[in-house]
Amino acid sequence: MEGERRQRVVVVGGGTSGWMAAAALARLLPTRCSVALVESEAIGIIGVGEATLPHLRAFNERLGIVEAEFMAATRATFKLGIEFRNWGRIGDSYIHPFGTFGRGTGDVQFHHYYTRLRNAGVALPPIEAFSMACSLARANRFGLPSHDPQQIASTFGYAYQFDAVAFAPYLRRFAERLGVRRTEGRIVAAERDAESGDVTAVVLEDGRRVEGDLFVDCSGFAALLIGREMGEPFEDWSRWLPADRAVAMPCRTATSVTPFTSAIAMPSGWRWRIPLQHRTGNGYVFASDFLSESAAADALTAAVEGMPLVAPRTLRFKAGRRARSWVGNVVAVGLASGFLEPLESTSLYLVQQAITALIELFPERRICSVDRDEFNRLINMEYDRVRDFLILHYHATERDDSPFWNYVRTMQIPDSLAEKMELFRRRGRVVKYREGAFLDASWVSVYLGQRVYPVDADPRAQGPSVDSLAAGLDRMRGEIDAAVAAMPDHAAFLARYCPMPTAA
What we know:
- The strands form five sheets. A seven-stranded mixed β-sheet has the order 5-4-14-15-16-13-17.
- By secondary structure, it is α+β, with helices and mostly antiparallel strands.
- The chain has helices spanning 15-28, 55-63, 67-73, 110-119, 132-139, 164-177, 224-229, 293-303, 347-360, 369-395, 403-410, 415-427, 440-449, 466-485, 490-497, and strands at 7-12, 33-39, 77-79, 81-85, 93-97, 159-161, 181-184, 187-192, 199-204, 209-211, 214-217, 234-236, 245-248, 261-266, 269-275, 280-286, 313-316, 320-322, 326-327, 330-332, 338-339.
């Protein structure tokens, strides 16, 4: 494209999604586009997306962000998985790990051998005993994974728990060093091309105009361009994911800084606990049809560990997505595109996937419909598959102790999820995808953790004798326990690797 004018990209809205998009475009497509970002300091950010998936590590590495520096700036801790308490039954606890069960190698997945032994009547610990990530999390230890595939310490990954309010300013400094131009101001209107309908400029409150060729809508729930201007419809999924409120309240860290996020089921939803270096994030995600906002705030206040730092604040939302996230020359990213509750920490993952798809399908001289259609296919697929995974947590329960749990336990679920559940119940098979957020271990952890057990396993798991399989599992558990014992305490590792600034 030497000698050609670069595409003028205008990112509408800042916050985490806006600055992620701006930083990635400026870093990865410096010769293809110029990037301007418009945001208003008067519009706050939600700032509760504190837990992430391992995919963010790859995003940061691709941009050249130094992990220890980023973690110190955002007061981050490590995250080996998500603990689920009281979901299948009150008193239950399991961890969805970032890593494999067993060694994760071979043609037959570990859970098939586990299922064979369980169905044969062998007394077994929960399957998480055979996960390096789960075992580290339970022991409150952490070390970086091994690069040697022969080592059991190579079988886990990790994500971050960080201060979401600090992440956007960190990305802003990073992006501005790459040449991103920031404009302060509130957008009040958009100008459109009379013939194509494309957006040509956004108009600020003081009359200034910011022109562009491609507009990335990161304006949050307001969806200024994709919703208000382009009129793209929103698909409502609240019949399957009825939680539509969250009460959030950080507190001083009074207990151990655990290397995992907790999702604790409550009578009308669930409560998150996210430990950072300087505080603990807390929130109660609930369905307003079953609980009032004041009662949710009271329940959260009674449950948190440590002294609250601020009064509870309420967030309102609706689960679902736009029918299309790229319409005309407007690409919606983040909350403008859709919303799925934070149960599996997928918010930033969905932002990241949209940014990645946009970069891979970035227009050359003009926007082609085939690229736009492929972007929409990919983003819709991501949302739909995450939706099914979230619904599984609610529907696969035996709880009948409240109207909320009775509803989600008995509701009609999407056919796509019903087919997945039936396949697992019959044969222990997890539907495999070439693309998507969650791999086998993720689904297996929720199925077994919430008592969805297969009646049969992969026929190839019938090869070894029951005795030899049981002995092999004992050896593996011993290997994992020894590797965990050699790892340092999580807080001690943080203090050496990425201590937060002393002035914080």
